């Protein structure tokens, strides 16, 4: 795809003309699903427009689902991968859910640290303020695409050394003999703030699902409190319902 002009005969804002050019490329088969577009800088030079114009045009088409963008890698034709399914009626981990549905789960660490519990953390975990907690903040990926930001806090009695947590928190908990057996989970609709949107490669303000899971050990103590934001366009949450006996 090598556009060399913006359709000089057309009028209207440059970014809209660039969008038409890309749409026409797709309609005429010169651009196919998963094709990479030239870099922003290259497009701007070829067309003699500013990078701001190129960015605005691409952003609009990403919001419409015509294109998708991945940080550091570029802009591609087509929507993000199919939606993933998260069961709501079983106590499973992200890694298990994604693997069971044939996807490859991934994790990028944003924070992995230990420290004294704040008053809020202590209330959530049912411990005393100042008791040690482990904080695990991760970007969760599915087949390489970011779908969720998860902020977990765990009492240090369960995970004393954050560096020991690998790809799966639940594997680490099971390894420590601290596997949760029950959880309460809440879902709510939210919109993404700037920095979260950047991490999730979504438009600021776009829809997301906030999930809070508080998970318990057999003795009733809290072993995990996780607050997550899932991209609204990435997930279906599925529960099986039955009539009460
Ligand atoms: C889900 C839950 C989280 C839990 C996570 C564990 O995403 N919403 O509360 O912490 O699974 O997943 P993993 O074991 O892959 O880290």
Describe the structure in your own words.
This protein is of the alpha+beta class. Helices cover 25% and strands 33% of the residues. The protein has seven helices and ten strands. The protein has helices spanning 14-27, 40-47, 51-63, 94-100, 119-125, 169-175, 194-199, and strands spanning 67-70, 74-77, 84-87, 105-116, 132-142, 145-155, 182-191, 207-216, 222-231, 235-238. The strands form three sheets. Strands 4-5-6-9-8-7 form a six-stranded antiparallel beta sheet. A two-stranded antiparallel sheet has the order 1-2. Strand 8 and strand 9 form a beta hairpin. The radius of gyration is 22 Å and the shape is elongated. Bound molecules: 2-amino-2-deoxy-6-O-phosphono-alpha-D-glucopyranose. 2-amino-2-deoxy-6-O-phosphono-alpha-D-glucopyranose binds at residues 93-95, 150, 152, 168-171, 211, 213, 224, 226, 228.
Shape estimate: elongated
Small molecules in complex: 2-amino-2-deoxy-6-O-phosphono-alpha-D-glucopyranose
Number of strands: 10
Mean of the pLDDT scores? 90
Nearest-angstrom radius of gyration?
22 Å
- Give the count of helical stretches: 7
Low-pLDDT runs: none
Major β-sheet strand ordering? 4-5-6-9-8-7
* Content of β-strand: 25-35%
Sheet bearing the most strands, described?
6 strands, antiparallel
The CA-CA distance between the termini, in Å, is 61 Å
Overall SS class: alpha+beta
What's the helix-strand series? HHHEEEHEHEEHEHEEE
Helix content: 25-40%
């Amino acid at each position: 795809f090598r556009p060399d002009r913006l359709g000089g005969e057309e009028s209207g804002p440059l970014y809209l003309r660039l969008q038409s050019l890309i749409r026409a490329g797709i309609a005429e088969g010169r651009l196919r699903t998963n094709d990479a577009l030239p870099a922003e800088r290259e497009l701007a030079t070829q067309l003699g427009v500013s990078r701001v114009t190129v960015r605005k045009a691409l952003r609009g088409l990403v919001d419409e689902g015509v294109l998708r963008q991945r940080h550091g890698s570029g802009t591609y034709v087509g929507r993000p991968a199919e939606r993933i399914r998260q069961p709501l009626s079983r106590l499973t981990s992200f890694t298990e859910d994604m693997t069971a549905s044939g996807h490859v789960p991934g994790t990028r660490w944003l924070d992995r640290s230990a420290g004294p519990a704040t008053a809020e953390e202590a209330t959530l975990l049912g411990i005393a303020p100042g008791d040690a907690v482990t904080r695990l903040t991760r970007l969760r990926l599915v087949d390489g695409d970011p779908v969720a930001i998860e902020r977990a806090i765990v009492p240090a009695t369960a995970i004393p050394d954050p560096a020991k947590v690998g790809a799966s928190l639940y594997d680490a908990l099971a390894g420590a003999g601290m596997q949760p057996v029950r959880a309460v989970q809440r879902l709510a609709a939210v919109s993404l703030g700037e920095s979260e949107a950047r991490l999730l490669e979504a438009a600021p303000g776009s829809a997301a699902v906030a999930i809070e899971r508080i998970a318990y050990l057999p003795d009733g103590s809290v072993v995990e409190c996780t607050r997550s934001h899932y991209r609204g366009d990435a997930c279906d949450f599925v529960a099986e319902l039955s009539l009460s006996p």
